[in-house]
Design goal:
mainly alpha; single chain; about 325 residues
Amino acid sequence: MSHMTYLEASVVGLIQGVTELFPVSSLGHNVLIPALAGGSWATDLNVAAGESPYLAFIVGLHVATALALLVYFWRDWVRIIGGFLSSLRDHRGRRLALDTADQKLAWMIILATIPVGLVGVEFEHAFRVLFGKPIRAAIFRVINGLILYAGEKFRTRASLRADEELAGEELADERELVGARTNSGGAVRASGQRAVRQMEVSLAARADERLAGAGYAEALIIGSSQVLALLAGISRDGVVMVTGMFRGLSRQDAARFSFLLSTPVIFAAGALKIPDLTGSLGNGIRGQVLVGSVLSGVGAYLSVRFLMRYFRTRTLTPFAIYCVVFGLASIIYLSLK
């Protein structure tokens, strides 16, 4: 069994947490960076090696990433889970109750998660062996960059119009938030802070109403794109956002839907690998797993906070450029190495 140092675990944990949510592929980074570093990193952190704890380690870190997402979106998940339960409780004969946005969104997330769940369970090992090689991960990173660029370059009119409508709504909301934040002094200041939180909760609920209005067919199409993320170098959040915008969602709503979809998928992927880490593959690296998980969770939480603000006004293009440049540079380096 290969060894894993605390330094390696710390670097991988932080990279996993940050890049899982940025549209640049966490698995691609965790395949490429050890190969580029060389030496013990390349042998200790080889995702394609047989009986290596590395894959179980990085997928196990997904639990920490999913927990960070749950912490950030906890109010939303309380509503969505409540919608799921009420849809079962208030069923009409054999029909589910799907009257509210939360009820619809809960089942949209379930429906959108089924394709990647089925493909992942059936073909995860084959994908890892076939596409977990550094040079292939570099090639798919370039492809990921091209997907992100095309997603911005060829935005549909419906998606652009959704951006414009959302910008108009948020301008009025921003004025209210600014007014609440500028309150000062004692109880008035506390009241202003409560108003800000209430406004943020309201914005999230309205976003989920827009997503629920997209419908189940759109959810299935958008969710199915997650299958591509089984290829090391292809970003789950990136392809989901591009597909969502192609289907008419605003960039901001596409990002939100991608993060909501990521939570059950990431958590399930990590939970499936926990038995490996508690078994023989985890011998000698459980301390490293703990350190990596803490850093992964912190990195994921800070990333989602940043990205939810970033995608309000900015595009996928910088990430596209990064993926193409990093991917091409990696291909050249690994070919000459």
